[in-house]
Amino acid sequence: MTSVSINGVRKSYGPVDVIHGVDIDIEDGEFVVLVGPSGCGKSTLLRMIAGLEEISGGQIRIGQRVVNDVSAKDRDIAMVFQSYALYPHMTVADNMAFSLKLKGLDKTERDARIAKAAEILGLTPMLKRFPKQLSGGQRQRVAMGRAIVRNPQVFLFDEPLSNLDAKLRVEMRSEIKSLQHRLKTTMIYVTHDQIEAMTMADKIVVMRDGKVEQADTPLNLYDKPANKFVAAFIGSPSMNFIEGSVRGSAFVSNDGVTLPLPSATVVSDGQKLTYGIRPEHLALGNGDGIPAVVQLVEPTGAETMVQLRIGSSVVVGVFRDRITAKEGETIHIVPDSSRVHLFGADDLRLA
Amino acid sequence: MTSVSINGVRKSYGPVDVIHGVDIDIEDGEFVVLVGPSGCGKSTLLRMIAGLEEISGGQIRIGQRVVNDVSAKDRDIAMVFQSYALYPHMTVADNMAFSLKLKGLDKTERDARIAKAAEILGLTPMLKRFPKQLSGGQRQRVAMGRAIVRNPQVFLFDEPLSNLDAKLRVEMRSEIKSLQHRLKTTMIYVTHDQIEAMTMADKIVVMRDGKVEQADTPLNLYDKPANKFVAAFIGSPSMNFIEGSVRGSAFVSNDGVTLPLPSATVVSDGQKLTYGIRPEHLALGNGDGIPAVVQLVEPTGAETMVQLRIGSSVVVGVFRDRITAKEGETIHIVPDSSRVHLFGADDLRLA
Amino acid sequence: MSDPLAIVLLLIVAGAIGIPILVYLALGAGEGMLSLMPVRAGQRLRPWVWLLLPIALAATILIFPVIVTLGTSLMDARAASYIGFENYAWAFSGSMLGIVQNNIIWLIAFPIITVVLALAAATLFDKVKYEPLAMTIVLLPTAISFTAGSVIWTQMYSFQPAGTPQIGTFNAFLGLFGMRPVPWLIQPVVNNLSLIFIAVWLQLGIATLILSSAIKNVGTEMIEAARLDGAGEWRVFFSIVLPNILPSVLVVLTTMIIAALKVFDIVYVMTNGNFGTDVIANRLYYELFAASNLGHASAIAVILLFSALPIAFINIFQFRSEARS
Amino acid sequence: MTDATVQTPATLATTGAGSSQGKWLKWLVHLVVVLFIAFWFMPILALLISSFRPQIDTASSGWWTVFARPVLTADNYLLALDQLRVGASLGTSLAIAIPSTILTVILSMIGAYALVRMKFPGRTALSLLLVALLITPPQITLVPLLRLYNAVGLSGTIPGIWLYQVGFTLPFGIFLLRGFLASIPQELYESAYLDGASELRTFVSIVLPLSRPIMASLGIMAFLWSWNDLLIPLLFMGGSGMSPPITVNLAGLVAQTTQGQGPLMAATFLSVAVPILLIISLQRYFVRGILGGAVKG
Amino acid sequence: QDANQYRDAAVAEAKRIAEGIEPGGYVEVIGQNSGAEGQTLQDVYAAFSEATGIEVRYTGTQDITAIVQSRIQAGNPPNVADIQLGEAIDLAENGQLVDLTAAFGDELTANFGEMLLETASYDGKVFGVYQGMNPFMVWYNPKSYTGPEAPQDWQAIVDWTNEQAKAGNAVWCAAQNAGAGSGFPGAQIVDNIFLKKYGPELYAQWGSGELPWTSEEVKWAFEEFGRVVMQDSHVQGGVIGALSTPISTGYTGLVTDPATCQISLWGAWVPGLIGETAVPGDNIDFFRVPASDPAFYGNELFQSAISVGFTDDAATKAFLQYIASTPAQTYLASLNRWPVANQNVSADVYPSPLLQKIASEYLSGDVQFAAGPNVLNGAATGSAYYKAIVSYMQNPGDLDNILAGIEATTE
Ligand SMILES: Nc1ncnc2c1ncn2[C@@H]1O[C@H](COP(=O)(O)OP(=O)(O)OP(=O)(O)O)[C@@H](O)[C@H]1O
Ligand SMILES: Nc1ncnc2c1ncn2[C@@H]1O[C@H](COP(=O)(O)OP(=O)(O)OP(=O)(O)O)[C@@H](O)[C@H]1O
Ligand SMILES: [Mg+2]
Ligand SMILES: [Mg+2]
């Protein structure tokens, strides 16, 4: 009923094309996360779905209805703006109450819903304040609250948690998920947080320069990125790429380092390839493995990120262990060959 | 020379006290990261350092000089605002050029610096645009650019990367670090990103409700959090806490689950304690270990977060492995007893 | 011809470029001086450095005459001897009362009509592509001098008895529907409203201009958020746009209330207060220039000044609340 | 020019209001606007048409009859051009109005900026006084100021008129601008300070450009008031060798008894030409959302 | 060519008058005439400047009262102003005007009629001179006029008016709407009615305040105005129409085809108001105002501003002397604007036959000018008078109150 389907949608600002034909199908009750580099058109796409931006080409359907010509207020969509867009002349409570008043809900019902949302968002002591009197994260939570008090057909979230601390973010994440379980509302969610994307999404859509690069379940994206761009984009730190070619059953990088290939690869000898291995799939070897020169060690507490030079390529490894090696020392690493990705000259992943 | 020292600084907005006496000492060239829950007063503190907010009490010194009465423009501080605060009537290039013009730099020098910053920030194609024609992340990068083209005594960053994607953020992070290495400028940096905090900081200051809870190096904070709050705040997902008491050489939770204690703990039998263990320090047991009921499995690609019930407590574990267990199944986990934290009834960490 | 032209050019250059540069330099010098002082002292003095010129100018052009007027309001017709509050006693008696009544009609009708129309115009114009044209047209009356305005409106309101061809536009229009012509400027009540309408015609442009620039400054995203919240155009206007431009509405309202209090030209030129349309400022003019009674005129002026105080206080509330938030 | 064209945003109504109901509404808006401006323009149209009609027709039939029987003549314009002495009078008018306008805008900005941005004891009192001064009837200022001007030798000079007009409009100007300045996000001032801008520099580089729409409004108003002011130039120019301003000549045409009103109407249109040019040329400053993209919140 | 000759004479006269006065400097003159009329005056003044080297800075404005009053109060009056006689008398009373007696010598008596001189003097001292001089008359359109030919008896007009009214023709054009001056045409009709019923003495007493506004005589004049002119069936547009019609277009009805009225009693400027459609002798002509009392048929009232000097300096006096002189006024007459006041100007000088006719009928022969409220009222009373006309037209029944109201302003 409230599926959203986007067909060949394009958008240009004057001469600048920012969306070049996007197709996405979102099922009723699905949780879709949009990711992509800054400026790739995520907010623009959300705004077009919401009806705030004229569609330069293509079609957007919500449920059965083509909504290209339906005005924003009739689409029954709640959106959290990246820039919050709070009503500065209303208190926090009034900001949240506004849409409810318009729906004609009575005061008791409104107050109950607002109290509930404020509770979830930790805004209860601030209900009487004006947006100006809030911190950045508090404002963002008000923007969030304004959306969740409603009961819309579709939720659009544009980086709704970007200004929250990690702890709060984890809480909010599970609140949003439980909201979605409860209401079964279709949600489209833009985020830059990998964990958010991976844990919340039913489907992640990876965009780049106004085009969809891949749309799939989180784990499929992680495990089988369609191309180098997606492979690099999903996962942080990014996947390491090493250029080289196949020599027999192993991969030899351009500067002569030999790396293991997954067992069941169908590649022809001599083929030019890009070898991709995620930082978390490098293990420390006990003397064996590939020698790598330590360039930078960054402990994050739980893990340690190490920048290494293998031949002339720089790769990053993330290890659970505390690395004590200093800059310039050589350590040995072992790539998990079952987790290696290979990309052809056209950047596409080899099946 | 450009050390910053904050002594007993307080701030109230009318009747609302938001900073209740903060002391922080920042050495020349130090990189200090401020973290704390949303609304704890980080932005306010930065604004006081910058001279934008009247100081209700206490003293701020930059270098040798008490700056309580020095106006913002004479402090030679660059700040990236949480809300960007771009000049809407200037192009991106002009936004960055403004401070340089005020310094009297000539056009060639200005253009060079702007080109450099734009290059780093990926803004080169947008130099001629106005802020309203940019995406959220692009705006944030302009705000960043405005700060880095200058060569101030102190940098203040208020969540400068919150709207950037993971990949870009990693790049920016290393740019900021190399900037700091090059310029040796004192930097105070607010972030909600744990990795950012851990990898960039010389010192992390954890704030809560307008007070400093702990200030130490990243690893010390991670390894030896002064209290439960800091322990929970640093690290994501948060540390797991289980209430219970000491029985002999082991810890027994309130609902009777026995957990191992670190070898060299000085606790008295029967003492009421909180047992803290980080999610990443739980390992899967091969049949042995503590039985735990799976409640929720969230794969993030690199790792899998699992919500588990041990007795009546809910704990989270983060495992490198893909967990295939379904909700309701029981698995066995092994806490790394060398990484266990114990907190007394006063929430302070036991030495 | 070249000589006066040179003078004109010189004056324009001196006034429009020279003086602003001097003002800038003076401010710069002031700021320079402030920067030599201790910060606190500088901060205390700074407002006065900035306000020096505006205050000096207002003091000379407005405050000084007002003080003189306060004095002469206690003196006789020729400002020769002190007579206490006699002029005020006169002002609150007899013929002045009917006049005050008219001002009250102005005071109620004029600001309300103007603000409502201006809000409507500013909002609607904002939605059409030919806004510049529309704006120019509502501003045109302001550009037409009053003298010419009187000619126009005499034409519009012109009246011929029923049965004869009407030259006046409004009466001719009424005639189309078989209605009797109305002596717009003569029939009591109607005539006050007719005069008020002229004032609305003249001032609407300015009110619309102010409100329009305020409306344009209301954040687009905030309005979009309201639309998503399900607000229709009316609701967006009343709940989002209006509260956000309230300061400007207050500015317009205040300006119009004050204009209603001191309305003069229209009444003077159109009816000179005949047919029961007299207003305070017209009486002031009469006392000052026709009757040469400086005392009476000054008393009227002082009463006008005091009548503006409540409006001033309302504005202060607004300023305060702006400062707070 | 460039920035205005780049910034021209979609008008609000066009976004997303495309449903059949929306279309209907859109047409309604057009209808209302067109009817409204037609009605507002009608008196001027009447004047315009009358200015091309012979006096005898104007006196005996309504202006609209021209559509049925178009008898038009440019005589009125020839007469008016002859009598207005457009050249010299226009010069005087401009010499009065241009500096008055610019000075009014600048000094109002300075005053408003200080009142909005600086906190000092007496601020409230000053604001109160400001509004109260708005009501000062111009008539009572004439004699005291003439005296003052005589004493200091300003009478009969154009700068004296600037002084008067600027001083008289200043309270309104400050009053109008302060509301706008209060709406500029605080953070913009702050980033300017941090960038090392002095108060003055912030004012010039940030506040002035951001206030362009409202300054243009004030400018238009100040110009129109100055342009149409009769009494002040007449009174304060006394004895000056310059031609009277064009509007004084224009007003004179109404009074004269030998030509009827035709030339007056023609002259009106001639004298409105300059203000219209001004209004049109300042229109481009009226853009939506000058503050757009500045801050989030 | 003729004009040049008159101009030369004026220049010569100015030279003569200004002998011994140093050239340079200027005389500031504020007058009521602007536009083409102001230009005409300035042409005459230019001759003075040419001869003497003294610049004349002339400004014409409707706001003259406010300006002159303000500048006097501010102690900065212009050198010369053309103001209403009543106002001038008030100023003379206050000693603010320059005494011109000595400057003029007996030239004045030679140039101006007795009445004019008398009104321009206060306390035996001459304080001003007249330039233009407008008498009043009954205007009609020879093509459509159906009334008695140049009647001398007011009653003839009254009877004819009534007769025409019965036939459904309103014969009068009497528009009164002149904005701030609304009602003044009516006031001048009342003045005419009064003068031609009660004679110049009583008329002068009325003007000087000796005869109260509440007197029977004044009341009668108002009522006669109401009876004869301001009846819905007598005046074009009815009373309300007359009140709302602007004077600038209100007299065109005389010459339109078909004409909408037949006569109007007003000043010499009526053809000018009508504009170029009025062709003197063809569709517009006049006869003198008939009298209720035949004894006073020869008395006429006039309308004129008076030029007064505020500064006691040679240039000012020379200028005033110049504008009063016969050559200057002859030159002014030759410019064909309006009748001039100097009685030595020959009627032939006027190019227009209409002005010639006015000049010869009024400025020579048996006409005696009389001064009453029309010229003697001060600003306050004058303004009250005009307003009273308007009120009376609306509420004829309220006449006593209305007259008492004017009387109150004379104190
Ligand atoms: N004008 C004000 N009046 C009252 N309280 C205010 C005002 N401005 C801020 N506060 C409160 O001060 C506290 C500190 O705000 P601050 O902006 O410093 O928080 P923060 O640590 O930066 O939070 P965030 O991470 O959400 O940006 C908040 O609780 C906020 O609500
Ligand atoms: N008014 C405009 N004129 C021209 N280009 C614009 C305009 N608005 C946005 N853009 C461009 O469109 C592109 C897409 O913007 P959008 O806001 O959708 O990006 P985004 O994916 O949301 O990025 P972010 O993650 O940084 O918020 C950007 O490159 C931006 O610069
Ligand atoms: Mg975005
Ligand atoms: Mg903050």
Verbal overview:
Chains A, B: Belongs to the ABC transporter superfamily. Chains A, B: InterPro entries: AAA+_ATPase, ABC_transporter-like_ATP-bd, ABC_transporter-like_CS, ABC_transpr_MalK-like, ABC_transpr_MalK/UgpC-like, Mo/tungstate-bd_C_term_dom, NA-bd_OB-fold, OB_MalK-like. Chains A, B: It holds the Pfam family OB_MalK. Chains A, B: Keywords: ATP-binding, Nucleotide-binding, Transport. The complex is a heteropentamer, with two copies of chain A (351 residues), one copy of chain C (325 residues), one copy of chain D (297 residues) and one copy of chain E (411 residues). Chain A is built from eight helices and 20 strands. Chain A has helices at 42-50, 92-103, 107-121, 136-148, 166-183, 194-200, 218-223, 228-233, and strands at 4-13, 16-26, 31-35, 57-62, 65-66, 77-80, 154-158, 186-190, 203-208, 211-216, 240-247, 250-253, 258-260, 272-277, 282-284, 290-299, 304-310, 313-319, 330-335, 341-343. Chain A has a six-stranded mixed β-sheet, with helices on both faces. In chain A, strand 9 (203-208) and strand 10 (211-216) form a beta hairpin. Chain D has helices at 2-7, 20-51, 55-60, 75-84, 86-117, 123-133, 138-152, 158-183, 186-194, 199-210, 212-228, 231-236, 246-255, 262-282. The longest helix of chain D is centred in the first third of the chain and has 32 residues, at 20-51. The two termini of chain D are 30 Å apart. Chain E is of the alpha/beta class and 411 residues long. Helices cover 47% and strands 13% of the residues of chain E. Chain E starts with a helix and ends with a helix. The mean pLDDT of chain E is 89. Chain E has helices spanning 2-17, 35-52, 64-73, 85-93, 101-104, 107-111, 114-119, 154-166, 184-208, 216-228, 238-244, 270-274, 314-324, 326-334, 353-362, 373-376, 379-394, 399-409, and strands spanning 26-31, 55-60, 80-84, 121-122, 125-126, 128-130, 134-140, 263-267, 285-288, 299-303, 305-309, 368-370. In chain E, strand 4 (121-122) and strand 5 (125-126) form a beta hairpin. Classes of the chains: A alpha+beta (351), C mainly alpha (325), D mainly alpha (297), E alpha/beta (411). Chains in contact: A-B, A-C, A-D, B-C, B-D, C-D, C-E, D-E. At the B-C interface, loops of B face helix 2 of C. Bound molecules: adenosine-5'-triphosphate (2 copies) and magnesium ion (2 copies). Residues 42-43, 82, 158 of chain A line the site of one magnesium ion. The site of one magnesium ion has 4 residues of chain A, from helix 1.
